[in-house]
Amino acid sequence: MRIVLQRVKRASVRVEDHVLGQINRGFLLLVGVEDNDTDEDVDYLVSKISRLRIFSDPNGKMNLALGDVGGAVLSVSQFTLFASTKKGNRPSFTGAGNPEHAKKMYHTFNDRLAATGITVQTGQFGADMEVALVNDGPVTILFDTKKKE
């Protein structure tokens, strides 16, 4: 699984002028799934993201987690995180998980993240979505369960 995490002051996702999810302070997550992703990958990401300390404490040091600041998550599926640009000028998306598996893993990830007590809003899997955000920092962190760094 791959996730692009952005710390935001606010974010929302729309489909056809209908707001599906919106948050104030928290994380916007762009979530990509590949076919060999498992529950282990989900659990790793839930653990990392729910405990990630990237909000400033009173001394201005990144030392607080999402729960410490009453933050929320807006999770948006994004198969294009597995784009390959190796050949030509048109990306290939063959690395992205088949939709049935990817949808299951995306929902499992969101459910397990919510089970930690974090408020999770979502987009609509497979839809053409409009995502708006006000980045905070900016702070952007990449997670890839196949390249744990």
TrEMBL record:
UniProt KW Chloroplast keyword: no
UniProt protein name: D-aminoacyl-tRNA deacylase
Subunit text: Homodimer.
Pfam families: Tyr_Deacylase (PF02580)
Keyword field contains tRNA-binding: yes
GO biological process: D-amino acid catabolic process
PANTHER family: D-AMINOACYL-TRNA DEACYLASE 1, D-TYROSYL-TRNA TYR DEACYLASE
Gene: dtd
This protein's domain notes: A Gly-cisPro motif from one monomer fits into the active site of the other monomer to allow specific chiral rejection of L-amino acids.
One GO molecular-function entry: D-tyrosyl-tRNA(Tyr) deacylase activity
Keywords assigned by UniProt, alphabetized: Cytoplasm, Hydrolase, RNA-binding, tRNA-binding
SUPFAM superfamilies: DTD-like (SSF69500)
Main subcellular location of this protein, as a coarse class: cytoplasm
GO cellular component: cytoplasm
Catalysed reactions, semicolon-separated: glycyl-tRNA(Ala) + H2O = tRNA(Ala) + glycine + H(+); a D-aminoacyl-tRNA + H2O = a tRNA + a D-alpha-amino acid + H(+)
Function: An aminoacyl-tRNA editing enzyme that deacylates mischarged D-aminoacyl-tRNAs. Also deacylates mischarged glycyl-tRNA(Ala), protecting cells against glycine mischarging by AlaRS. Acts via tRNA-based rather than protein-based catalysis; rejects L-amino acids rather than detecting D-amino acids in the active site. By recycling D-aminoacyl-tRNA to D-amino acids and free tRNA molecules, this enzyme counteracts the toxicity associated with the formation of D-aminoacyl-tRNA entities in vivo and helps enforce protein L-homochirality.
Enzyme Commission code: 3.1.1.96, 3.1.1.-
